[in-house]
Every structure is written in structure tokens, then in C-alpha cells.
Amino acid sequence: MNSNIRQLEPTQLWNKFADLNAVPRPSKKEEKVIAFMVNFGNSLGLETIEDEAGNVIIRKPATKGMKNRKTVVLQSHLDMVHQKNADTVFDFNSQGIEMIIDGDWVKAKGTTLGADNGIGVATIMAVLESKEIEHPAIEALFTVDEETGMGGAFGLKENVLKGEILLNLDTEEDDEIDIGCAGGIDVNISRRYNEEKVPENVTAYKIIVKGLQGGHSGMDIHRGFGNANKVMNRLLFDGFENFGLRISAIDGGGLRNAIPRESFATIVVDNIHHDAFAFEFNQLASTIKKELKTTEPNLFITAEVTKLPNRVMELGVQEGITKALYTAQNGVYAMSADMEGLVETSNNIARVKIKEGKIEIKCLTRSSVESAKMDLATSLRAAFELAGCEVEFTGSYPGWTPNVESPILKVLVSKYEELFHSQANVVACHAGLECGILGQNYPKMDMISYGPTIKGAHSPDERVSISSVQKFWKYTVEILKSIPNAD
After folding, report:
1. Domain 195-344 belongs to what architecture?
2. Is the pTM of this model over 0.85?
3. Confidence band (pLDDT; 50, 70, 90) for 85?
């Protein structure tokens, strides 16, 4: 299976990707991949450092004839988003990713692939190992904890890096050069509630919402994909308003930066409303499927009779939380007035967990405008505080302000046109990139971001284009040859 991946061109890159994907590397649990990377650097006889945050820096001297060029920082993050389909049996903490080839795509069997940002990591590893590629002095920076708060970038201290140019290999369209990104903030909602005895003469149902595409809550937020938490809440709210539905438990979504694909709820309805509830539920499910038929053709919604739960939520809290979830912004909130087609501000209702007297809701709010980011986060806080919840803001990180006069941008634009006989799209993205954070301690560093084509990042549909990786590799090799002379 993974042996087939190793035969792909460029073999040096794909072999490093296969080596990397054999190592478990969830965010916050990067010990194994840090050790793997430190061992890799040491095996090459290169200066290798692990800093206090867990980032790994590997330095490689310039090749012959390139010593007068500016030092380049090649940067990617080691951690990956761990998501799997509900019917996939897989332990991310102990197993390596199982990869398959499907036409021009490499994907994983029922899990995220880790191309975000493993292809970038593998590219840097291949450059470090190569004895043939011409390049200036390189500082390879492998950061940790990017996907759950960018802890590695925040933890990198000033004066550690000496490079003047940073190439961030972490974007997902091979015809784009990124010069800016959105900042973000986590909105964490919680409250306790009393559980009540299940009423008599009721029928219990397990409501299932699944089959949604999911995806990256920044890069894919404008695509109109369904959010399983919002779909579920709409079903529950309707059942409560019309038939007095009572909620026992909800388990929807997962990671803060992934659009929720699935949600499950256990509820009860009075027997007297059994037939009417079933009819109304099916009607509403059909309506939702029609609304989303273009973007979500595989959406599956059902209500199955199940055994009675032990308890249900207290009525007042249920009413308040379903109303708050209904009113809470999800998806694109505003488009940029300065850059055509760029999402300025958005929110992802990423996680809803209600069980045994505890409510936990997590959102990731993004914006390329700091004040707009905080405004939307505050509106979410207001909605949930009205429902009696406690709201905490954590993990705030800055955006990356575009610099259209960037010298390295001119190099990449020129080299792209020379190699591919077309113009690259110079863009800012709505995802969070580490450039904005790294720029706080390295404000004079000239930064750019680019990468191969990756689809479905942060979901089990994640896949990377083989031909695009070949293009990306060729581009990277030529960029390294074209780094300007030091001043």
C-alpha cells in the first residue's frame, strides 16, 4: 500500500512523506515526530536544535557557488489534524497513516492524510538530504502545534533564526502565492445544567446527521458546505417547538478547525406525538437535503427508535441553548472590501457536546481584520451568555498583513511565469498561517507561502494531487536556485 507511494515521482519527496506518515503526530502529542525529526537531522550530520516549544531547527550550509545568497528559512509544521469516518477503526496515537493512490490523487483509508502540512515537511527533508540541489544556506524550521493554536510559532523566540527570507510551504492551490492570511480566536462556551427524569409515555430516538463533506474551516468556509451542528440544531429546535422534544445528549463535530461532518443526538418525544413527529422530521430532513443538494449530495439524516436514556436536559436550559445555537453565526460573515473574492470574517461552530449535565461548544472565529474578528467573537459571546453560558476567548493569533512590494514575491511570480508559462494568482487566504505569528519576532523577514494542490484538508476526504506535487517540487528547486544575493 504505502510502498506504491514510494514509487511516485519525485521519489525523494514521496519517500520522506511515507516515512513521516509512519509516525503518529497529532497536535499536542508530537513527541514521536519531534524525535523522528531530530534523529533525521543528526543522521545527516547537520546542526539540529529542539527549542523549548518543541520546534526543530536544522541548518544546512549553502552549496558551492551559493554562499553569497541570502539565507532562506524553509518552514512547515509537523502536526496534523486527526479526523476519521465514524465507521473507520483507527488509532491515531499508535498507527501510521494508510495511504492509497486513486488516479492523480494520494489519499488515506478513512482518515485524514496529513498532506497538510506533511508534503511541506517532506519537501524540506528531501532538500536537506539532497547532494544535488543548488541552494543558499538553509534554516529548516519544523514547528509544532500549528493545528490547535499555533503554539510552536508562538513559542519560537527572537534571534533564533538568522534567515532573511521565509518560504512557508503550507497552502493548498498550486497556482497561488499567498502574501497574507486571517487571524483567529477560539470561542469556548460551557455551562452546567440539571438533569431531569425522563418523562413517562415517551419514545426515544437517535438522530443521525452524517455524510457531509466537512473540510478546512478557513480554506473551505466559502464553499457552502453544510455544518452538522447547525443541521442537527435545526432538527432539534423544530421538534422542540412543535412536539416538546427533550434532549438527552448531543455529540457533534470534533476539531475546532474542521467543518463538522457528523452529529448524533439522543432525544425523547411524547408517544402521543409519535406519528406527527416522524412525519414532520422526515419532511424537514427532506427540505434540508434539497437546500444542500448541490454542495452535499451525500447528506444522510435519520431518526431511529432507540432505548430510553436515563435523563434529559432541564427544560429551560434546553430552550436557551438551542435558541443560542440557532442564532449563532456560522460560515462567512463578511467578504473583504479590499481584495476581491477573499473571505474577511467567518465562524465555524466546530464542536457541540451535551451530556450528563455539561454543555461544551467550541467555535473558531477568523478574520483578516483584527477588530472584525473580535466583533464577531463578542457577538457569539453575547448570544451564549444570554443562554446562561460562560464564554472564554483563548488562542488568539494575528493575521499576516499582505506586502505587495515583497522582494521574494517578485522572485516567485517571475519564476512561476518562466516555468509554467502562465501567471500565478497572488492572494491572501482565509486560513491561519504561521507567518503572521513568526513576523512578530522577525518583523524584517521577507515571507511568502505556497504549496501543492490539496483538497478536503482536515477531513477524511483529504487528498493531494500527484501531478501538483511534481509541479510544486520543480518550482521549489528553481526558487532555491534564484534566491537573491545578500546585501
Report:
1. 2-Layer Sandwich (3.30)
2. no
3. confident
